[in-house]
Amino acid sequence: MTETDVKICVSHVRKTFTRGHRFTKVLDDISFSIQAGEFVAILGPSGCGKSTLLNMVAGLESCEEGSIVVNEYHTNQPERHRMMMFQEAALFPWYNVLGNVVYGLRFKKGLTNAERKTIASYYLHIVGLDHFERAYIHELSGGMKQRVALARALAPNPQILLMDEPFSALDALTCEQLYRDVQKIWNMQHKTILLVTHNVREAIVLTQRVIVLSRRPGKILKDFPIQLSYPRSVHDVSVSELANELTNVLHEKDNAEDCASCT
Are the C-beta atoms of residues 183 and 151 closer than 8 Å to each other? Predict the structure, then answer.
């Protein structure tokens, strides 16, 4: 891997939140790099600093110690080459589906309105919402809203897509369909994607590497390669075996800490 191949480089990052006289260490000495075109998950229990780390990569929060370099530049603010998908779809209810996807393209220079609509329609087709362009957000299911959010994030053609537990509030069947959609899109575009999740099987089904964090303060327990061919399903035996292995990594750390606290 050469330096120009690396899209994201996180080096010795630490983060502490301060409220009055109370200090809460969230992340402790986090280091990893992500190559251009890689699909990587950050996996860990609730409260371990996953979303905080993703927000720092996005430029929404600052590093307290260490550095985050994206495309050879230190991150200090959001930029158009990085797009974010949140846990909530965060769509505009006063726009229809097409209008929501077009909105992100309004800030991309050199496009006519007709070209923006063509691009938006293309990405709505990719996520299976061809026939819902004129629908309004209140008419959509939760899964459909997240598909619109995915199309909106992809339409400006960002170099990096950041995903903050975007499927956590959806039912299992809807998640499985979205997993298929995301795998298809990644296979088509090989975009650099960083996904935050607490769902072990989701991480294995979607990504090529899983970075496992401990309980707060988050530390890297393991950087785990997923060497399974696409497409993948949560019901695959190989996925179940890897899920057990990753779950054991988390539980072994928890058990070791529990034993240490008892001595």
Answer: no
Burial per residue of 6-31, b for 16 or more beta-carbon CB atoms within 10 angstroms, e otherwise: bbbbbeebbbeeeeeeeeeebbbebe
Residue 155: which of 121, 184, 187, 120 has the closest Cα?
A: 120
Q: Is the pTM of this model over 0.85?
A: yes
Distance CA 133, CA 126 (A): 13
Strands 192-197 and 160-164: parallel
Q: Residue 231: is the preceding peptide bond cis (ω within 30°)?
A: yes
Residue 115 tokens, joined: 């070209």
Query: Is the distance from CB of 75 to CB of 7 less than 8 angstroms?
Result: no
The H or E element spanning position 26 is strand 22-35
Instruction: Please say whether the dihedral angle defined by the alpha carbons of residues 260, 261, 262 and 263, taken in this order, is positive or negative.
Output: positive
Q: What is the pLDDT along the chain (263 residues), one digit of tens a residue?
A: 444 566 899 999 999 988 777 888 899 999 999 999 999 999 999 889 999 999 999 999 888 889 999 987 777 778 888 999 988 888 999 999 999 999 989 878 889 999 999 999 999 999 999 899 999 999 999 999 999 999 999 999 999 999 999 999 899 999 999 999 999 999 999 999 999 999 999 999 999 999 999 998 999 999 999 999 999 999 999 999 999 999 999 887 664 554 444 44
In one letter, which amino acid is 125?
H
Say if residues 135 and 78 touch (Cβ distance below 8 Å). no
Cβ atoms 75, 10 nearer than 8 A: no
The answer to whether 222 touches 212, Cβ cutoff 8 Å, is yes
CATH topology of domain 3-81+159-262: Rossmann fold (3.40.50)
Map out the domains of the chain as residue ranges: 3-81+159-262, 89-157
